[in-house]
Specification:
- This protein is mainly β.
- It folds into two domains: 1-51, no CATH class; 53-150, Immunoglobulin-like (Sandwich).
- It is 11% helix and 29% strand.
- It contains two helices and seven strands.
- The strands form two sheets. It has a four-stranded antiparallel beta sheet with strand order 1-2-7-6, with no helix packed on it. It has a three-stranded antiparallel beta sheet with strand order 3-4-5, with no helix packed on it.
- Strand 6 and strand 7 (139-145) form a beta hairpin.
- The radius of gyration is 24 Å and the shape is elongated.
- 8% of the residues are buried.
Length: 160
């Protein structure tokens, strides 16, 4: 489409303006356009859309430990912070949006960017001195070992 139409407003390349590429602002404009057409459809809150994304996490348990896995693609180790306070494990970080493209323009932007925070309340059975975290290939794996007295034990039942 040539510049100057309603769908492709005229603008110089790499010059910010009201139609400059800002994926979050454009998504908010798109959502607001349908507020009156679909009154019961959810509309993104501007604060939610511009502040956070939530990485997917799996938590599973064995006899000896709890294991938490979080998917953090394109998050750098220096942008990832773990904290443990009052039995609450906090995973905090940021996936930064790379705005520079060598050629062309974006046609679709579906992945989320920005800061995130996940909090997990740990059970009292966790040995907090032996927690181990490993970050490799965009996957954070946190091993939360159970205290010895909390581990399952076999009890022999005697028949009389």
């Amino acid at each position: 489409m040539e510049a100057g139409t309603k769908l492709a407003p005229a603008r110089a390349k790499n010059v910010p303006g009201p139609f400059a590429f800002d994926p979050l602002r454009n998504l908010l404009r798109f959502n607001r356009a349908f507020e009156n057409v679909f009154p019961y459809a959810p509309v993104w809150d501007e604060g939610l859309a511009t502040t956070a994304w939530t990485p997917a996490c799996d938590i599973f348990e064995t006899d000896k430990e709890l294991i938490l896995k979080a998917e953090l693609p394109e998050v750098k180790k220096e942008d990832l912070h773990l904290a443990l306070e009052n039995n609450v494990l906090t995973i905090k970080g940021e996936r930064k949006f790379e705005t520079e493209t060598k050629e062309g323009e974006f046609h679709r932007l579906e992945r989320s960017y920005g800061e995130f925070v996940r909090n997990f309340t740990l059970p009292n059975v966790i040995d907090q001195t032996k927690i181990n975290a490993e970050f490799k290939d965009g996957l954070l794996r946190i091993v939360l070992p159970k205290r010895e007295e909390a581990k399952a034990k076999q009890i022999e039942v005697k028949v009389k």
